[in-house]
Structure formats: structure tokens, C-alpha cells
Amino acid sequence: MIDKILKIKNISGVLLILLGVLILIDNFTSLPFELGNFMGSGIMLAIGIFLQRLYENSKNIYLTIPILLFYALAISIALSGFSFIPEDVVGIFVLGSLGLAFFRIAYSDLVNRYYFIIPGGVMTSISIVIFANLIFPEEITPVVMFIGFTITFWSLYFLSTVNPKINANWAKYPTLVFAALSVIIFLTSISEVIFHLIVALGLIGGGIYLVRKHLVSQQSVKDDDTF
Q1: Residue 31: helix, strand or coil by DSSP?
Q2: Which of 118, 122, 119 is nearest to 144 (CA)?
Q3: Residue 226 pLDDT grade (very low, low, confident, very high; cuts 50, 70, 90)
Q4: pLDDT value at position 28?
Q5: In the predicted model, is pLDDT for residue 40 greater than 80?
Q6: Hey, which of 21, 49, 80, 189 would disulfide with 139, CB 3.0 to 4.6 Å?
Q7: Tens digit of pLDDT for each residue in 81-121?
């Protein structure tokens, strides 16, 4: 039944019926959301369904990008019609969906499409940063983004070690760069007292390691002289 309703030729009819019902309800009572947002969401949903049907016929994996994009826009526009939902939700859904689309393309053929992991990781990281901005202080969220970039390139390097056909050994260099940036940004974002505490503990730990190493080497020399 649902499959028949979702046929391309029936999409417009279903949306018109739904829109008519909503206008009728809105004429007698106030809806809890903006009707214009719902109309825009319906258009995005119709385009997404159309593209999905096109994908089912052609099996073109690259159609995954616009399909998930229009579905995300449909959800985002609908949610933005509710006053209690933050506007940042639109960016979270859109960028997150694009990230998933790129991951889907990459993992459909890792050997030849592994590089799609990069835009997938970037989009997903930015969407997580937008979400983190709603919860955490702004000083911390850049760290989240660079950690996401680090994981993205590390996953490429890891895949190259597992499968030699994936030529992504170079990914270890941006992994190290983004990891270093993550640490630097984290240290500069925390309070000065905590920063000094971490530095002091690091220096003390390094000093203990050097002293212990020197004592062990001296002891080994004495043992050699004894024999």
C-alpha cells in the first residue's frame, strides 16, 4: 500500500491532499507550526522521493548525495517551523546528511572511492560542532572539529594499512597535523591554572624519566664492570 502511494505519479496528489487538510484545519484553529514551512518541507520531500525512485532504476550511487540532502532539508524546514527548536538544527541535519551520503559512496567501493571519506568526515565534524555549540562553551567546540578531522584522516591511513590497494598512506601526515592542532587548541582553551598544571606535570614526568634512565644506565655499567 505504502509502495503504491510513493509512486512518482502519486506524490503530488498526496501532498495536495495533505496541504488542503492542513489549510482547512488552520482556518479553524491555530497550528503549532508555520504552514509555509510545512509546504516547503513537502516540496523537498517530494524531490527526495523522486530522486530515490530514480536511484532505484539507475543504481547511480552518486544520487545518494541529493537524495539525503533533500530529505534532510525536508526534516530541517519542518522542524524550523516550531518556535522552540533552534535554527542551528537546519545546519546539523543538512551537513550531517551530506556526510552520511559521502560515507555511503566511499564504502560502496573503498579501493576506488576512499577519498569520499574526506568530505564525509569534514561535513560530519562540522555538524557535530554546530550541535556542540548548543551545549558546550564556544571555546571548546573548535577542538571537537579538529578531533573529527584527525579521525577522518586516521581512518584513511588505517584503511591503507588493512588493504594495500587503498593508496592512502599519505593520510598519516594530516592526521599528525590535526592531532597536534587539537592538542594546542585544547590547551589554549582551558584556564591558565589548568594549563600551567599540565605543563608542570609534564616537565616533572619528563624529568623523572630522564633521571631514571640515567640511573638504570649507570647501574648496567657497574654490573658490566663487576663481571
Answers
A1: coil
A2: 122
A3: low
A4: 53
A5: no
A6: 189
A7: 666 667 777 778 888 899 999 999 999 888 899 999 999 99
Q: 63-70: which pairs have CB atoms within 8 A and are 24 or more residues apart?
A: 64/101, 64/104, 64/105, 65/98, 65/101, 65/102, 65/105, 67/101, 68/97, 68/98, 68/100, 68/101, 68/104, 69/94, 69/97, 69/98, 69/101, 70/44, 70/45
Q: Whose grid coordinates read 588493504? A: 163
Name the residue ranges covered by the structural domains of the chain: 1-85
Maximum CA extent, the chain? 102
**Residue 45 is which amino acid?**
L
* 138/148 Cα distance (integer angstroms): 16
Q: For residues 6 and 48, what is the distance between their CA atoms, to the nearest angstrom?
A: 11
- Give pLDDT, residue 23: 59
| CA separation for the pair 170, 153 (Å, rounded) | 9
Q: Are 166 and 155 in contact (CB under 8 A)?
A: no
200, burial (CB in 10 Å: exposed 0-12, middle 13-18, buried 19+): exposed
Digit-coded pLDDT (tens) for 183-220: 888 777 766 656 677 778 888 988 898 888 777 777 66
Please provide the average confidence, as pLDDT, over all residues in the chain.
79
Dig out the grid coordinates for 207 from the structure: 624529568
Sign of CA dihedral 29, 33, 34, 39: negative
